[in-house]
């Protein structure tokens, strides 16, 4: 009998967890001939998430929880879930019911019967999200796709069911800076896409604001592409060629036509422009160096404070 592991990162989800548990259990019970486990990863919540999880896990032994010592982020929570899972298939789901549980049955069918390694949900619209966020997200995915050469289309999120082979391949990547959307694509494998409509979260509020989304986007670009470094080089070449042409032009116009060289404003503008671009390029370089620095430290991706599974028993 196949076992499905449902991995649920939870950060301050007290309002929606009981409903999520009910809905997901209902859908999992509909699937014939399977065993399942639901792994809740409490990502350092400050509300009563952990108390609720303890109650749920106490009365249902399909459920387990791992509680982090602080908020390590959704990427770390997903990694922990995959690492602790024991199922033949793993599915990652948000706790807010934005990932429709009724798709679980067709996802399982795709990976167990149709020969796919992975079946992923693809959000077809972005209703319930602001216009600006919508626009920025779409632009980001376009840029990302071009820069990384990986298939990372808009709407392709973390909601996916994978077989053990794919899960193990993802677990082998022990990067500290984790960008799961990229990693799914990086490891390859045959993926079936199932479209679904975006719904507003069932309760509670989103953990993302513009600042966190922006740094998430940068994380994606810097983790999966060295294009910014190449762009700096190309920019440098343009400036170099431009400066040579300008020097020749100035020399000729002064020596041959006797035009006196003036232009305090031009000089000030040029100095500001050049020092500005230099700082920007150093910042880009710094970004890569700091990534390398963090990788070299090889700190743990997450730290577990508490779990209902016995120590050392995974
Ligand atoms: N989440 C998490 N750690 C965080 C932020 C979010 O584990 O630091 C979880 C959250 O509890 C939810 C999922 O990640 O289950 C998606 O979060 P959210 O709904 O806030 O994101 P959105 O759907 O708005 O992209
Ligand atoms: Mg959500």
In terms of quaternary structure, the protein is: single chain
Q: Can you write the helix and strand succession as a string?
A: EHEHEHEHEHEHHEHHHE
Total individual domains: 2
Structural category: alpha/beta
Average pLDDT score = 87
- Strand tally is 8
Categorize the overall geometry: elongated
CATH fold description of the largest domain: Spore Coat Polysaccharide Biosynthesis Protein SpsA, Chain A
Number of helices: 10
Rg over CA atoms: 25 Å
The named CATH superfamily of the largest domain: Spore Coat Polysaccharide Biosynthesis Protein SpsA, Chain A
Compute the separation of the termini in Å: 20 Å
Can you identify the CATH class of the largest domain? Alpha Beta
Helix content: 40-55%
Transmembrane segments: 231-252, 264-289
Domain Glycosyltransferase 2-like: 5-167
Keywords: Membrane, Transferase, Transmembrane, Transmembrane helix
GO molecular function, one term: transferase activity
Summarize the structure in short.
With 314 residues, this protein is an alpha/beta fold. The protein has helices at 17-30, 49-59, 74-84, 104-112, 131-148, 164-172, 180-186, 210-224, 227-255, 264-297; strands at 2-10, 34-42, 63-68, 89-92, 118-123, 156-163, 191-196, 304-307.
